[in-house]
Amino acid sequence: MPAEGSSKPGSVSSSEDDSVELSKAEASLLQKVVRKGLIVSKHDIEVQRKDPTSPLYSVKTFEALHLKPQLLKGVYEMGFNAPSKIQETALPTLLADPPQNMIAQSQSGTGKTAAFVLAMLSRVDAKKSYPQVLCLSPTYELAIQIGDVAIKMGQFCPEIKIRFAIRGEEVPKGTILTEHIIIGTPGKVVDWALKFRFFDLSKIRVFVLDEADVMIATQGHQDQSFRIRKALTEQCQMMFFSATYDEHVMEFAEAIVTNPVTIRLKREEESLDNIKQYYVECKNQDAKYAAIANIYGVATIGQAMIFCHTRKTASWLSEKMSKDGHAVALLSGELTVEQRIAILDRFREGKEKVLITTNVLARGIDIEQVTIVVNFDLPIDQAGNADCETYLHRIGRTGRFGKAGLAINLVDGPQSRRVLIQIEEHFGKKIVRLNTDDVDEIEKLGNE
Questions:
Q1: CA 289/CA 295 separation, integer angstroms
Q2: Contact 388, 425 (CB under 8 A)
Q3: pLDDT of residue 235
Q4: Which residue among 151, 374, 375, 425 is least crowded, i.e. fewest CB within 10 A of its CB?
Q5: H or E element that contains 209
């Protein structure tokens, strides 16, 4: 594909511009795909209680929780050696007797799924052959992920039975379910419990509502969640989880959960402090490509994300880099969720070292191995001015979780230089010029 000619900022046609953002459900799902392990968070836990006199406990080992030996074995088998920060605080509360209700906010990868799954498995009385635990998830895919965690963690407790209430799962009319744990989506659970009465919601001892911010962004799920909640008893332990915690989520949480302990993992603010920013002067698009090739030819860097303004540029760059022998993945807005998952999975596993994308991945997706972000095109708004919020989100894909990161901005011509100056002024931070023809300079870049 030939290189595009340079066009004026803001002149990109809407059909080419790929600034469509992911839905909350898609972003949450993709984030879970790329975050298979736990991140190590340096951020503080904030705990709020209705009763300030009630004691708070935290644990540094899983043994301190006095779990059933088979469950402890399952935890270790999954590779968890010590509780994550949110688990240290959440698990003693979730496992306490009498049971306590909880609202917890934490980003994906902090270990909250493992925390509530451990609580779910711990509360089951396997001698009673009816559903005692209900876990609601907003999407089929996320429900499957929770179920996978539960199956792995409970692998040494074969007496605990799990059932998925998701699309494709059919139950004959008149059936009374005997599985102990139901994991499903709101619509299916409403049908099974309230319409067909396959199980009795009044016997549920633990109710988990996961990904609440996605739930309220999905048509009908909030109302279905309320219908399910109304059929539960006041003795049922409520666990409510959300990656974000805005006013709408808080209202939803308070309507679902009574007298909760609220745990908030203070969210990692996207900051430029640990990201070194550079710019490279380029005459045209081919010179931009040469700059990337020079960096990759000399610097020792991990994985990279390259942001382009249009799908057309992203396709051109992907094709050119592939021809030159680079392991490249291309991700843009026209792909299905399934295609995006497959691409991100390969990138996370290191099968491709470079992910070329548009603004579709500018925010919400964190891949720990990304050490460098390249702005092939600087982000601009409809008027052709710097889109500083998108810039922050883009370069925030590196330098995650307290690590150092690199951002390189490719500048071609007076218009993109003006955009660069606007970005510098907005953030009050100088962006340093980099000479990609200087081997020594690039080598230093790789060692930072």
A1: 10
A2: no
A3: 94
A4: 425
A5: strand 206-209
The string of DSSP codes covering 50-71 is SSTTS-----SSSGGG---HHH
Give the whole-angstrom CA distance, residue 164 versus residue 144: 8
Cis bond before residue 131 (omega within 30° of 0): no
Query: What are 66-123's pLDDT values in tens digits?
Result: 899 999 999 998 888 888 778 888 899 899 989 999 999 876 666 788 899 999 999 9
Region of poorest pLDDT, from 39-43, 103-107, 171-175, 223-227: 39-43
Looking at the DSSP bridge assignments, the partners of residue 303 are 370
Residue 386 in contact with residue 412, Cβ under 8 Å? no
Pairing of β 162-165 and β 181-184: parallel
pTM score: 0.62
Rounded to whole angstroms, how far apart are CA atoms 137 and 185?
A: 5
Residue 347: pLDDT band by 50, 70, 90 thresholds?
A: confident
* Secondary element (H or E) of residue 288: helix 285-298
Of 60-74, 190-204, 271-285, 372-386, the range with the lowest mean pLDDT is: 271-285
Within the chain, what is the greatest distance between any pair of CA atoms? 75
Q: Are 138 and 25 spatial neighbours (Cβ–Cβ below 8 Å)?
A: yes
Q: How far apart are CA 226 and CA 292, in angstroms?
A: 52
Among residues 42, 71, 5, 88, the alpha carbon closest in space to that of 273 is found at 42
Give the pLDDT confidence score for residue 383 in this predicted structure: 87
DSSP class of residue 195 equals I
Q: Look at strands 206-209 and 275-281 and give their pairing.
A: unpaired
Nearest to 98 by CA among 123, 75, 65: 123
pLDDT of residue 111: 78
In this structure, the chain runs to a length of 448
Place of tokens 């666990």: 239
Q: Which two tokens stand for residue 192?
A: 């099974």
> Mean pLDDT in the chain?
81
Give CA–CA dist 206/134, Å, rounded.
Answer: 6
Handedness of CA 218, 219, 221, 222 (dihedral sign): positive
Please give the structure tokens belonging to residue 394: 């883009």
CB 265 within 8 A of CB 106: yes
Q: In a 3-state reduction of DSSP, which class is residue 360?
A: helix
- DSSP-derived letter for residue 17 is B
